[in-house]
Amino acid sequence: MFAARPVLAFATILTILMVAGPVKSGQYEDGEAAYRVGDYATALMEWRPLAKHGDANAENGLGVLYARGQGVPQDYARAARWFRRGAKQRLSAAQFNLGRLYFHGEGVTKDYTKADHLYRLAAKQGYARAEVGLGVLYARGQGVPQDYAQAARWFRLAAMQGNALAQGYLGLLYERGQGGPKDYLQAVHWFRLAALQGDTDGQTFLGILYVVGEGVPQDYAKAYTWLDLGAAGGNALATKYRDIVAAHMTRAQIAEAQQRAERFRPHPAAP
What we know:
By secondary structure, the protein is mostly helical. It has a domain at 1-17 and 26-146: Tetratricopeptide repeat domain (Serine Threonine Protein Phosphatase 5, Tetratricopeptide repeat, Alpha Horseshoe). The chain has 14 helices and no strands. The relative contact order is 0.07.
């Protein structure tokens, strides 16, 4: 199931912002501000001395720079070392990021059991991305017995915090009847929440439900709107279904659906 919906965020959600842990120093915040605008050299300069003196947030920040190859050559092994130092100080972001490396086998030997352990430590602190990670492990049976009910439990915790990836995963469980009975109304609810945050899988699956009329009245125009958004985000399944739906619509209807989709697209802020 979840092989069909890649853990797409796990390649991009190494986190340095809004981390749990001790109050950040002004120097850390200077580095964080630099990181936000893409000035990785300054972030590195601000964080390195802090990390060497045991600042957990800075250790995690250095791990992110090495994992992404930002301001330094990409080096997953060094990233793991810095994440491990932050994780030992119970920093939830570092625990999650180290777990992600074990999940993918980057800089460390792939080990789903260790990923589970680290995700669980962070999830116990309410870290939403770690809750998603545990949900994926249970859904796939990686490092833990496959258990869709447990997957739903963890996805729900993260979804209630507004995590779009978790909302989409939870929608899938309801749509497929995994971990409980099929419930298309609940699937629509969670797909819509994810879709409104720009999650392309949420947009795609919501569009498909409008195509088939499950949980919502069949509506090609609304289906096209959501599928067009998913397709614009690079979702191949959305593109496939959008083109199928288009064959049932007039040009005027397609133009109207595209205009509706435009209202949901992110637009750059005015200078």
